[in-house]
Design a protein that fits this description.
Helix content is 40%, strand content 15%. It is α/β, with parallel strands linked by helices. Helix 2 packs parallel to helix 12, helix 5 packs across helix 9 and helix 11 runs parallel beside helix 13.
């Protein structure tokens, strides 16, 4: 019997998807499992795409993106991320996810190793499976605020290691990596001659201290940085991302992207130009809303005696539910079915994260607080059972 490829058959089922499907069976659930802004795409961005379609801008574009967009993105990363890049170093991608996949294909041969954190966004691991790259996990410690530590990573490096993948602000942790830690991580990569893949799709969502990009700390062209319009401009369904590549790698990344997708949707690229060049007030407003939600949620968890790791960016929070006496998966299943609240089990993001569930702050404050109250009550009730 003809079968699918072993790589595809071996892909694990998403813990996020499992909880979402359970939530669809419940009447009026509170969704705290999905990382999607609850804000609409700003009107001027929508109008730019509409006008582009009316004007007939609906044909193929260059694989790396239209020149106008690459030009404004070079200005954006220079002004907001302090990355000095030319438009030729910008590659526009169908969401940052395709950018990460294309870069993995461009820098790592099958059988080589990629360093990736536990916990991490699980799609990184799916990509390595499909590409035949071996993912080697390094720990993120709750006591360190889930910030990566170079000393904990170094023992995992072998002669087959090709790259180190970083994510700040992080999903699922909400951790932002400070400048000193980034400098140590990049120096570690320099010592072992590794590429650094820096996923910064939440670069505009930071709380206590301004976010620091890895690119400006790179002295010798080993950092590739990924960004997206999805979270910053509430454009998840538009599927526009972009990356900044060292000059010598850009053509390889473009070649890797060509067989995956011919180009990004043409009107969406015009919308992306409008997003970068238009009003930016909504970016600050969304950041302020997530910041306020972070503060009220951590205050509530503290009052209820539920341990958590305080996030400093993105819109996620890791809460420790081990006090319930249940595994993270059983807790998440029961929370949906018995309390009508969907959160993501920690082991979705890594085997060492089973004490936690991920709470998304990307929902309105009132249902968010109600969902967290139900979670806290469940921990205490089930612990007493």
């Amino acid at each position: 019997m003809v079968r699918p490829s072993r790589a595809v058959e071996s892909l694990p089922r998403s813990g996020i998807r499992e909880i979402m499907e359970l939530a669809w069976t419940v009447n009026d659930p509170i969704h705290l499992e999905v990382g999607e802004p609850n804000f609409p795409t700003p009107e001027h961005i929508v109008e730019a795409a509409h006008q582009a379609a009316l004007d007939g801008f609906t044909r193929y574009t260059p694989n790396a993106g239209i020149g106008e967009l690459r030009e404004v993105l070079a200005g954006k990363v220079r002004e907001r991320n302090s990355i000095d890049a030319s438009p030729d170093q910008i590659v526009v991608t169908p969401g940052a996810v395709v950018g990460v996949y294309s870069v993995m294909a461009a820098v790592a041969d099958p059988g080589t190793e990629l360093l990736v954190s536990d916990p991490c966004w699980p799609n990184y691991l799916l990509m390595t499976e499909l590409l035949g790259i071996r993912a080697v996990r390094f720990p993120l410690a709750a006591e360190d605020g889930f910030v990566p530590n170079a000393a904990r990573i170094e023992p995992h490096i072998t002669d087959r290691t090709k790259a180190l993948l970083l994510n700040s602000p992080g999903n699922p942790t909400g951790a932002t990596t400070d400048r000193h830690s980034l400098e140590e991580l990049i120096e570690l990569a320099r010592q072992y001659d590794l590429w650094v893949l820096s996923d910064e799709v939440y670069d505009e969502i930071w709380f206590d201290e301004p976010f620091v990009s890895a690119g400006p700390l790179d002295p010798d062209g080993r950092v590739i940085t990924f960004f997206s319009f999805s979270k910053t401009y509430a454009m998840t369904g538009w599927r526009v991302g972009y990356l900044v590549s060292p000059p010598g790698l850009t053509e390889s990344v473009i070649k890797a992207q060509e067989p995956i997708t011919s180009c990004v949707n043409a009107p969406a690229q015009k919308a992306a130009v409008a997003a970068i060049t238009g009003p930016q007030e909504m970016v600050a407003e969304m950041r302020k809303a997530y910041h306020e939600r972070r503060d009220v949620v951590v205050d509530l968890l503290a009052r209820e005696g539920i341990p958590y790791v305080r996030p400093t960016g993105a819109f996620y929070l890791m809460a420790d539910v081990s006090g319930s006496g249940l595994s993270d998966l059983e807790f998440a299943r029961r929370l949906v079915l018995e309390r009508g609240v969907a959160v993501v089990p920690g082991t979705t993001f890594g085997p060492d994260s089973g004490a936690f569930v991920r709470i998304s702050l990307a929902t309105a404050t009132e249902p968010l607080l109600e969902g967290v109250k139900r979670l806290a009550d469940a921990v205490k009730t089930w612990r007493a059972d």
